[in-house]
Every structure is written in structure tokens, then in C-alpha cells.
Amino acid sequence: HRANFHPGQADVRLDEAQVCLAHLNRFLPQPTAEQNRRLLARWQALWGVINGLQGNCTLATEHCQAALNHLGDDERHMSFVCTFILARLAMSSGETAQAQQMLMLAVEQARRQGCLVREVQVNIQRICLMMLCGESDMADRLLQHNLSLLEADGNRHVMLLGGLRVLQGKLHLQRAELDECERLLHQAMQL
């Protein structure tokens, strides 16, 4: 079953989220300084994500970095999302060393949380970065590792499996192995 998605829905949802975040003052002050800090850190994280999704790189970076400085250990999900957004922003601006660092941090967070889906999502970005940097052999090894992780989990995450198959096809395309590329892309579309 696939949800009906219309192109403008994402923009409407982001606009709704912005309206909600604009009303933060209704919840301040909190009973303690610690609760104030945590609420403001979450607010910054959410603004960072929204700005990142809208392509406002500078604001997204500022908010996500500020949030990471103040998020507590019990806010691992928000920390992961901020780290992932920062990695994607670094990739988009060509800061490959920064992107690699942030992606490694994000994959470590995903592993500590025991979240296979997050780990593979991050590794898909790592594979893309490796391919962009001309590290095809490393990308292929990481891709194979992630296919093994998904297989060991029963291949339940078809979107991730499809993404890996597309990347695998692109690797074969880079090697001018057109038949194998076509086979893998068809396989990805069948998932």
C-alpha cells in the first residue's frame, strides 16, 4: 500500500511546523532552567531540520550545531537527526572531510541506539560520498556489507534495499558494466 503524496504536501507540512515552532513562547518559562535549556535545544533542532529541508543551509547549520551543544543524552533521536542534517549539508557544499566526520558520528549514534534502519540510511550517504570522491572499491565494500545487514534482518526494509540496489547499479555503470547496471536498476524498481 502506498500513500497518496502530492508534491505540495511537504511544503504545507513544513509551513505548519514553522507556525507551531513560532509559538514556543507559550511554553516558556519552564519550571526549571534545565527544562528551559532542553526545550530550547529541541526548538533549535527542529528549526535546523526544517531549514535543512528547505535548503537554508546557513540557518540549518547554525540551529543544528547549537542544538547539538545543548541536547541531553536522553535526546538521542534529535541528536542523530541534527548530525545527519549537518552531514548532508556538508556534502552539498563540497566539504567532504566534514561530511565524512559527521556521517561517521551519525553511524556510531545509530549503532549505539541499535537502529539498523538509521545505520543503513547513513551508510547510503557514506556510499554516495565515496562514489563522488572516486572511492568506488570502498563504496562497493560498504554497499555489500549493508546488503548483508539487511539480508540478515530478513530484507524487511525494501526502500533501503532499493536504494542500495540503485547505488550498486551506479557503481556498475561507472565501470561500464551496462548489462549488470540495467539488471540491478530493474531489480530495484521491482521492490
Give a structural overview.
With 191 residues, the protein is mainly alpha-helical. Helix content is 77%, strand content 0%. It contains 9 helices and no strands. It starts with 8 loop residues before the first helix and ends with a helix.
Gyration radius over CA: 19 Å
Structural class: mainly alpha
Distance between the termini: 13 Å
Helix count, DSSP H or I runs of 4 or more residues:
9
- Give the overall form: elongated
Strand residue content:
under 5%
The unreliable regions are 1-7
Average pLDDT across residues? 89
Which descriptors would you attach to this protein?
77% helix; 191 residues; mainly alpha
In brief, what are we looking at here?
With 191 residues, the protein is mainly alpha-helical. The chain contains nine helices and no strands.
Produce the secondary structure layout.
Layout: H1 9-22, H2 33-53, H3 57-70, H4 76-92, H5 96-112, H6 116-132, H7 136-152, H8 158-174, H9 178-190
Helix pairs in contact: 1-2, 2-3, 2-4, 3-4, 4-5, 5-6, 6-7, 6-8, 7-8, 8-9
